[in-house]
Amino acid sequence: MIRHVVFFRLGSSEAERAADIRRFAAPLEALVGVIPGLRSLTVGADIGLLEANWHAVLISEHDDREALAVYANHPAHIEAATIVRSLMIDRATVDYEV
């Protein structure tokens, strides 16, 4: 199994950030059951203890490397990801075997 972790830094103000995260979380979380090999996907918002922290994280689990590639290139994922891409100013990703 592969765990895919993506950290996002958003361009929105602190007051707008929670709404922006909800706006992109819902369509991404809805991909479970749509994309083969995608076992789970959750988006979480940072609780704001440190200003240097990333604003949001996406954690998804995939059957294997091939399933992660299917997810990355699936039209439903590409469409859902356009929302977060319009809001983010930076991202970092780590993929690892579980």
UniProtKB/TrEMBL annotation:
It comes from the Bacteria. Pfam families: Dabb (PF07876). Coiled coil: none annotated. Gene3D superfamilies: 3.30.70.100. Residues 2-96 form the Stress-response A/B barrel domain. PROSITE patterns: S_R_A_B_BARREL. SUPFAM superfamilies: Dimeric alpha+beta barrel. PANTHER family: BLL2683 PROTEIN (PTHR37832), STRESS-RESPONSE A_B BARREL DOMAIN-CONTAINING PROTEIN (PTHR37832:SF1). This is Stress responsive alpha-beta barrel domain protein Dabb. It comes from Microcella alkaliphila.
